[in-house]
Amino acid sequence: MKSVSPRSCARGFAVGVLLAACVVDVLFSGSDGTSVLPTASPVWPTLGVLLVGLAAVLWPEGRRPDRLTPQVRTAVPALVSALYSVGSLVTLRTNVFGPGEVVILLCLLFIAVRQCPPRAAWWCGALDVVALLLLPVRLLGPLDPGVLGFMVAALVLIALFAGLAVYLRTMDYRRTLAVSETRRAERVAIAADLHDFVAHHVTGILVQTQMARMMARTQPQDIDPVLAGIERAATEALASMRRTVGVLRDTGEDADRRPVGDLAGIADLTDGFASPVQRVTLHRDPAVSDDLPHEVQTSAFRVVQEALTNIRRHAADAAHVEVLLRDDAGRLVVSVADDGRGGTQLPAAAHGGGFGLVGLKERVTALGGELHAGPRGGVGWEVRAVIPAGKR
């Protein structure tokens, strides 16, 4: 047996109440030109106004034609109702109204305020308000004291319906804005990931290409390992871009393709960084667990990656690079130190804009950690991050 959602039940109840109110309107008018109740008007004008309003309110969204925009839905029934009221003034004929038409105009006001474009919402809503306030003149005339009482009650209902519509429209706008900001932040994060990985690999390609050119003149027999390193770095850069494209396509199959790193990946970084003229040593404290939170492992990986990239850019003369991972009373300490003197042979355009460490500090600080980068006590440079390593 198919279950019915509470929302569907509430909608069905509201539609039933609206239709029952419209039946009351019809009972105030005769079905054949005579009156069912005293002082009633012929049924056809009233029935026509109600049918136009009901079509605007109840037409299913999935079957609604494109030309039936919120502006048309809210303006046309209100205009028909207002013309009927004005016609009563011109002909001096008594025409009744009932709760059905009142509810329809209030629903149209709600739709106008919530769904119409900002400029159209003003004049469509105003048209619905005018049509609602003109209703009593059909029955009482413009000078009857009862008109004022109806208008006061109508203004209260107008304020309630319009206020609710404004509140819901504001919530929709805030929700849309929050989704947009979230998507933008995700794309910025993905772009930063792509930049970090590709910059690391491309910088390695550049350094090894320079090395290959020198060895082609002096040691051509030893050039093959360098070319193999270039090939490996290019392959990894392409893989990083492919994973990022997989994330941007947002398919379930590619959901895990974001180019992230972990503590195990740091060993691959150091192995890939080592060269015949640069030795890299990785010291990992046995107390550092592989079960650290994902964001902590990723940040540690990025610290090492950015530090190694900067060594290639700014300290290509470094002969020894030391990478340290250790546990310090529940905090993960990540340190990358080199013995370079700032000598580099890279082109100026390959030195980077200095934003890598800024973004890295923001990432580490967001986790409650600290990042320091500066000269060592003797020779060289050190990047050191301390990250709270709360266990899962």
TrEMBL record:
Coiled coil: none annotated. Keywords: ATP-binding, Kinase, Membrane, Nucleotide-binding, Phosphoprotein, Transferase, Transmembrane, Transmembrane helix, Two-component regulatory system. Its EC number is 2.7.13.3. The chain crosses the membrane at residues 12-31, 43-60, 72-90, 96-113, 120-141, 147-168. It catalyses: ATP + protein L-histidine = ADP + protein N-phospho-L-histidine. Pfam families: HATPase_c, HisKA_3. PROSITE patterns: PROKAR_LIPOPROTEIN. It is an enzyme of class 2 (transferase). CDD domains: HATPase_UhpB-NarQ-NarX-like (cd16917). This is histidine kinase. It comes from Streptomyces viridochromogenes.
